[in-house]
Design a protein that fits this description.
Pfam families: EMP24_GP25L
Distance between the termini: 142 Å
Protein name: GOLD domain-containing protein
Number of helices: 2
Helix content: over 70%
Radius of gyration: 47 Å
Keywords: Membrane, Transmembrane, Transmembrane helix
Length: about 110
């Protein structure tokens, strides 16, 4: 083998170095090493769940507000139409009653 290495050295090439395969230690990746990552991922998942829950709450709140607003608008339209009807009826009554008054007094 030494002759083979010498022959390779003579050509200017280095002899291939054989490395021993080192066995992985038993404690290469224990649960203790992953616990900070697990804590972080749990915390991030909790924050995401909180955000989703808050968004759902806001969506429900907005939907409730929207339905309340629609019912208020319909009620407001009804009241406005009623006021317009009362105003028109009062105007017609005034014209009729004034006309009768002036006819009786012979002014018209």
């Amino acid at each position: 083998m030494e002759q083979k290495n010498k022959r390779l050295e003579g050509n200017g090439k280095k002899a291939p170095v054989q490395q021993k395969e080192q066995p992985l230690p038993d404690n290469a990746a224990r649960q203790v090493h992953f616990s900070p990552l697990k804590k972080r991922s749990t915390r991030i998942k909790q924050l995401v769940d909180d955000i989703i829950a808050h968004q759902e709450y806001e969506r429900q709140k907005e939907q409730k507000y929207s339905s309340n607003l629609e019912s208020l608008n319909s009620g407001f339209k009804f009241v406005v139409m009623l006021q317009i009807g009362v105003l028109v009826a009062a105007a017609i009554f005034s014209v009729i009653s004034l006309r009768k008054f002036f006819v009786r007094k012979h002014i018209y």
